Amino acid sequence: TTQMPHRRDALLAASLFALEFEALLRAYDDPQLVGTIGHIEVWPNASNIIPGRGVVALEMRRCDPAPRADALQKMEATTRRVAAQAGAVRLPMGRDRDCAIQFFTAPRGR
Asked: Average pLDDT by consecutive 10-residue portion of the chain (110 residues)?
């Protein structure tokens, strides 16, 4: 059993990012900037194993590319902060409308 202070949970990173993503989009107060997280997947996806990998699939849309580019830049900073908070590493996100963000963890000390 891994004690709570020693856990590094990719699902926690994905969940924290989902909350931050929603807050980020709402902070723009722009009805044309919309997004959603439509899928979160974790591995090994078992109830008694701390997830070591999590993928967040999201979509963000805006006809004017400038606000969307700004939001993407802020999302990059958010993924780095969330990964550090959850003890995970993250892979860079795609730049297209649909992208997936992956969080990976490893036991502390590795």
From this structure: 88 91 92 91 92 88 86 88 85 62 64
Q: Are the C-beta atoms of 10 and 103 separated by less than 8 Å?
A: yes
60-66 — which CB contacts under 8 Å span 24+ positions?
60/25, 60/33, 60/34, 60/35, 60/97, 61/33, 61/34, 61/35, 61/97, 62/30, 62/32, 62/33, 62/34, 63/32, 64/32
Question: What are the strands of the beta sheet with 98-105, ordered from one edge?
Answer: 34-43, 53-61, 98-105, 88-90
Query: H/E element holding 84?
Result: helix 65-86
Q: What is the pTM of this model?
A: 0.83
